[in-house]
Design goal:
17 strands, TIM Barrel, alpha/beta, 8-stranded parallel β-barrel, 3-stranded mixed sheet
């Protein structure tokens, strides 16, 4: 008889994730200055409904309550990010003590509840001053397309490590540098909203450099037990057909979505096909000798963020709408490939983001990383789904999310069976929050947030996930699992 439950290894981390700008609010408190996301969200037309992160989930004031929620759900890990402009308002110079104190108190509260903190240094909130001078401010930085930003990041990493290195063991340099580079500087749907393909590729390189310099700064400041990694959002990219033309489209997107980061970070190289495909956009002269030794640092883990796969075919000339899930823009986030690749919707039911549900993509990526980075432990640092959650009678019933989570956790389990060394899973997200260009309309939380009252209501998926975390096992199939959720 087959076992009705899928067991996860002992010590597997059951976590939830958030990011500073998406939950904190308190944007003008204790010396914090604007980040590129403050500027962007306050620019009319950039975020749906004109939403901003000014208040968000008011986590800056409600963090104790939010840690209590994690503890009540029995989660063993929490992934959060540090707001750079809270700690180093202009992106240069000494740290602001009150900024560091906020994160120290948060970490201590987590540790007091036996929850492992996983700290991300950069989840997209670049100090505005490093992008362009603040009114009356210092030198204009130019943002990620400029090399200096990578050095500024390494300095910031050292400041945070110096303050929290005695209590945080799990450190992540960057979250999803693909989004920072190609949505921020290519398609412009993310801050700072620039639409310059050459700048996007420069940004990608300087993010790689920032990662490498950041790892070096962390190693210098952290005790030996600390573990350092990065969270990427690799694309599980499939060809529409096995034709040579569609396989070539797949190769192009694999280069621009995946290998542009894993090349420098894992192998110390930009692949020749990537350089050739983008030769009409840039000559890559911004890659200095020695950079690729810096970007390739030994890593203690790799973080995989996964939501949905991509399906591509060959195209010649600008096609119709791109079903790549990356938001509406007249500008492609794929430098050199925008007119040559068409994106198709993968089969499967859609979440509220219109992202097809396909857990196989997660298993494929975990196996791919297992092959590419042998011996490096993996974490799923984000996975989850937005649905149209509505409270009814004081409760939020979200069976679609339970099915999404069940399918993806089963995929993680399958990857474990096939030899992937997956050490933990961080569900995106603990709370409904500011979903970037979509504002508050898209709810990814395990916990429902009423933005008028800031009341938090755990959804039925939270109770379901709590049982998975408590037992360390997953029912083989739904829906009979755990009656009552
Ligand atoms: C990730 N895309 O964002 C982020 O790390 C989270 O902050 C975010 O809330 C979550 O996924 C859900 O979206 C992404 O357009 C934003 O492909 C956009 C894309 C991918 C990831």
């Amino acid at each position: 008889m087959t076992d009705a439950r899928l067991r996860f290894p002992p010590g597997f981390l059951w976590g939830a994730a958030t990011a500073a700008y998406q939950i904190e609010g308190g944007v003008r408190e204790d010396g914090r200055t604007p980040s590129i996301w403050d500027t962007f969200s306050h620019t009319p037309g950039k975020v749906l409904g004109g939403d901003t992160g000014d208040v968000a989930c008011d986590h800056y004031h409600r963090w104790r309550e939010d840690v209590r929620l994690l503890a009540e759900l029995g989660l063993t890990a929490y992934r959060f990010s540090v707001s750079w402009p809270r700690v180093q308002p202009t992106g240069r110079g000494p740290a602001v003590q009150r900024g560091l104190d906020f994160y120290r108190a948060l970490v201590d509260e987590l540790l007091a509840h036996g929850i492992t903190p996983a700290l991300t240094l950069y989840h997209w909130d670049l100090p505005q001053e490093l992008e362009s001078a603040l009114p009356g401010g210092g030198p204009a930085g130019g943002g990620w397309p400029e090399r200096d930003t990578a050095y500024r990041f390494a300095e910031f990493a050292g400041l945070v490590a110096g303050a929290l290195g005695d209590r945080v063991e799990m450190w992540t340099t960057l979250n999803e540098p693909w989004c920072s580079a190609f949505l921020g500087y290519g398609s412009g749907v993310h801050a700072p909203g620039r639409t310059d393909p050459a700048a996007a590729l420069r940004a990608a390189h300087h993010l790689n450099l920032a990662h490498g310099l950041g790892v070096q700064a962390l190693r210098a400041a952290l005790p030996a037990r600390a573990r350092v990694g990065v969270s990427l959002n690799p694309s599980a990219v499939r060809p529409l057909t096995p034709s040579p033309a569609d396989l070539d489209a797949r190769r192009r997107i694999d280069a621009l979505a995946n290998r542009v980061f894993t090349g420098p970070m894992l192998r110390g190289t930009y692949d020749d096909d990537l350089l050739a495909d983008t030769a009409g956009v840039t000559d890559w002269a911004f890659v200095h000798g020695g950079d690729l030794d810096v970007t390739r640092q030994p890593l203690d883990f790799l973080g995989v963020n996964y939501y949905t796969p991509a399906v591509v075919s060959a195209a010649d000339g600008p096609g119709g709408p791109r079903h790549d899930g990356h938001g509406a823009s007249a500008h492609s986030p794929w430098p050199g490939a925008g007119d040559r690749v068409a994106f198709h919707r993968a089969p499967g039911e859609l979440t509220a983001m219109d992202w097809p549900v396909d857990p196989t993509g997660l298993k494929d990526l975990l196996m791919e990383y297992t092959a590419q980075a042998p011996g490096v432990p993996l974490y799923v640092t984000e996975n989850g789904a937005a649905y149209e959650d509505k409270p009814e009678g004081g409760a939020v019933h979200d069976p679609d999310r339970v099915r999404y989570l069940h399918g993806h956790l089963a995929a993680v389990h399958q990857a474990l069976l096939e030899g992937a060394d997956v050490r933990g899973y961080f569900l995106w997200s603990l709370l409904d929050n500011f979903e970037w260009a979509y504002g508050y309309g898209k709810r990814f939380g395990l916990v429902y947030v009423d933005y008028d009252t800031q009341e938090r209501t755990p959804k039925s998926s939270a109770r379901w996930y709590a049982k998975v975390a408590a037992s360390g096992e997953l029912p083989r199939s739904l829906p009979e699992a755990w009656p009552g959720v």
